[in-house]
TrEMBL record:
Transmembrane segments: none
Organism of provenance: Demequina mangrovi
Key words, A-Z: Hydrolase, Metal-binding
Residues found modified as N6-carboxylysine: 145
PROSITE patterns: PHOSPHOTRIESTERASE_1, PHOSPHOTRIESTERASE_2
SUPFAM superfamilies per UniProt: Metallo-dependent hydrolases (SSF51556)
Protein name: Phosphotriesterase-related protein
Gene3D superfamilies: Metal-dependent hydrolases (3.20.20.140)
Length: 322
């Protein structure tokens, strides 16, 4: 792959520029919006806020944002495309399924060996999203998102990993994860994916930067995967001081080519709505790296070449396959 599909068409890998590798535009839930509407959600206002957010990012030098909102988090690619069509920043979208424990009941009856039977609908969905487009929009996913958290590899989490690995083997698409760093969850993800034929060099272990355990982080990187230092500003999971300290320690040990940077922020999220974020995590925004963290790294001696490696070169290697 030398080009990368985005919400508004393919972009050459060399044109991605500075890339935020783990963000969300809108995190919603269609059933909740129908039955229990959130008082802070206003679609048109959210579209305007997202448009302003991406204009701000472009002015700060960001070229691409990877939106890892997948089914289970209220993915609506048509809505994201409305933002992308007004944005100078390219938006890459994802396939996959967000589940920490149990999948929706439909999956309990559909698939090989189940009541209704048939092919695995998860694998079919992932491959269709990657090769044909998402939900009739024609917008193709570029990455596969998988999740495991504190409960570990539950049967349904494992089922998603199975489908993601199969889709990766068929399409070559990279896999990006949500992991639980306190329990060293990235190691179990690597073991499961590798056992299913996944090239660990095409895997980003998300939220690795929540950990200060250098032995754990080096094990993940030494197995070939990228480390997602992707929650800057997310103070309730780790302080920026700790994230910067750990990142600098890894850079001193030569791991720049194994690291990508981001925030895991959202323009709007039902899970942590704007009023809560403004009060509790005011730095948890997509401009935080550019305005606060990158200057701290440069002041600590991180040079331009290293910043480019983490923000431009590594994302290009992951997304464009080079």
């Amino acid at each position: 792959m030398t080009t990368v599909p985005t919400a508004t068409g393919a972009v050459a890998g060399d044109e991605l520029g500075v890339t935020l590798m783990h963000e969300h535009v809108f995190v919603l839930d269609d059933a909740l919006e129908r039955d229990l509407p959130h008082p802070e959600w206003d679609e048109e206002a959210a579209i305007e806020a997202a448009t302003a957010t991406f204009a701000r990012l472009a002015a700060l030098g960001v070229g691409t944002v990877v939106d890892l909102t997948v089914p289970g988090l209220g993915r609506d690619v048509a809505r994201v495309r409305r933002v992308a069509s007004r944005s100078p920043v390219a938006i890459v979208v994802a396939t996959g399924w967000y589940v920490r424990g149990d999948l929706p009941p439909f999956f309990g009856t559909h698939g090989p060996g189940r009541l209704v039977g048939g092919a695995d609908p998860l694998e079919a969905l992932f491959v269709r999203d990657l090769e044909e487009g998402i939900a009739g929009t024609g917008v193709r996913a570029a990455v596969i998102k998988v999740v495991s958290d504190e409960p570990g590899l539950t049967p349904d989490v494992t089922r998603v990993l199975d489908a993601a690995a199969a889709a990766h083997v068929r399409t070559g698409a990279p896999i990006m994860t949500h992991s639980h760093a306190p329990t060293r969850g990235g190691l179990a993800q690597q073991e499961a994916l590798a056992a299913r034929g996944v090239d660990l060099g095409r895997v980003v272990i998300g939220h690795a930067g929540d950990s200060e355990d250098l032995d754990y982080l080096r094990m993940l990187a030494d197995r070939g995967s990228f480390l997602g230092f992707d929650r800057f500003g997310m103070a309730h999971t780790q302080s920026d001081d700790a994230r910067v300290r750990t990142l600098l320690a890894l850079l001193e040990r030569g791991y720049a080519e194994s690291i990508v940077l981001s925030h895991d922020a959202a323009v709007f999220s039902r899970v942590t709505p704007p009023s809560w974020r403004a009060r509790e995590t005011p730095d948890w925004r997509m401009d935080h790296l550019a305005t606060r963290i990158v200057p701290r790294l440069r002041a600590a001696g991180v040079d331009d070449a290293t910043m480019r490696t983490m923000q431009v070169d590594n994302p290009r290697r992951i997304l464009a396959g080079r």
